[in-house]
Design brief:
heterodimer; A: 150 residues; four-stranded antiparallel beta sheet; 5 helices; B: 159 residues; alpha+beta; Alpha-Beta Plaits; elongated
Chain lengths: 150, 159
């Protein structure tokens, strides 16, 4: 999709640093040369087009005392739908992708404790008969999910 | 790590903020009036959490496909015991195409211990970045895992 230069500038600002300010769209507007109303209208447009999924806080699960992990499983074609349905019903599963590999299902699991996460994974295995690789992080080097537009 | 304690009203603020801000010129005042706090209390809470890193990032989350970064691959790397995995992790993180880089515990017969997400404008772009990183770090055992179907993508609800 083609975005205007002004839209790109707005996205660059509000991805990394949405102003925590009484009038956030006035602050962004001053930076890009638009009024508050024009800026808000553009942001609404970007949401309607589906470019922006949401605006809000992204929390550090570890600092909140939660445990997160990456999981993988080699699921045969005939068991795929059942396995996906079982995995996806867990609110702690935030991302789940099919990937071109013998280990074809890759998902993330976030839970209030390490034990709770391990128990949930065991429960999925018990119900589906599919072994799950549990690959918790030992060290984070980088997480940067905002993309430069320009 | 000590768990963070929040008041009931703060939890209600965070419940809104973990989802989507109200669509208005003054979203923080709107949140404040919904939960019975002052606008300044809401602003102070969110600024404080951001400063402490409990809110990692405050802002818009994009759908990548729509923003022109449609192609990505997860790469699982096997870094040998005698290689400096921290140095390699930092080297990989320096590339702008790498959005995530984690050292992870291996499991069962899956030996890989370093994971990166690479984003590019085409699959070829992703492969080129991976080849360059392999050359630069000397890590030649890796699996590229291209996604072909999104099964779930949501934001975690902690509150």
């Amino acid at each position: 999709m083609e975005l205007s230069e002004t839209d790109k500038k707005i996205l660059d600002i509000i991805q990394t640093d949405f102003p925590i300010d009484p009038r956030p769209y006035a602050v962004v507007g001053r930076m890009v040369g638009l009024t508050q109303a024009e800026t808000l209208a553009r942001v609404r447009g970007l949401k309607q087009k589906g470019v922006i999924r949401r605006i809000g806080g992204n929390f550090n699960s570890r600092q909140l005392g939660w445990h997160s992990t990456l999981c993988a499983a080699a699921v045969p074609e005939e068991k795929l739908e059942e396995f996906i349905a079982e995995v996806n019903q867990h609110p702690g599963v935030t991302h789940n992708y099919l990937r071109r590999h013998r280990n074809n299902v890759w998902f993330t699991y976030i839970g209030p404790s390490k034990e709770q996460v391990q128990d949930s994974l065991k429960q999925i295995t018990a119900r589906t008969g599919i072994e799950i690789l549990n690959l918790p992080a030992q060290k984070m080097f980088k997480i940067k999910v905002d993309f430069p537009m320009e | 790590m000590t768990p963070v304690e929040f008041s009931q009203q703060e939890i209600e603020v965070l419940r809104i903020v973990q989802a989507d801000l109200p669509d208005s010129q003054s979203p923080f005042a709107d949140i404040a009036s919904r939960v019975g706090l002052s606008e300044n209390e809401v602003l102070d809470l969110l600024r404080g959490l951001k400063e402490r890193g409990i809110i990692r990032r405050f802002g818009a989350t994009l759908r990548h496909q729509q923003a022109g970064y449609g192609h990505n691959a997860m790469v699982a790397w096997y870094v040998e015991q005698d290689q400096d995995i921290s140095h390699i992790g930092r080297t990989m993180s320096n590339r702008p195409e790498i959005t995530h880089c984690y050292q992870r515990i291996n499991c069962m017969d899956w030996p890989y211990n370093l994971y990166t997400m690479v984003h590019g404008r085409s699959p070829e772009h992703c492969c080129r970045v991976v080849q360059e990183l392999a050359g630069e770090t000397g890590v030649n055992q890796f699996e590229m895992l291209f996604s072909y179907r999104e099964l779930k993508k949501t934001s975690m609800r902690y509150f």
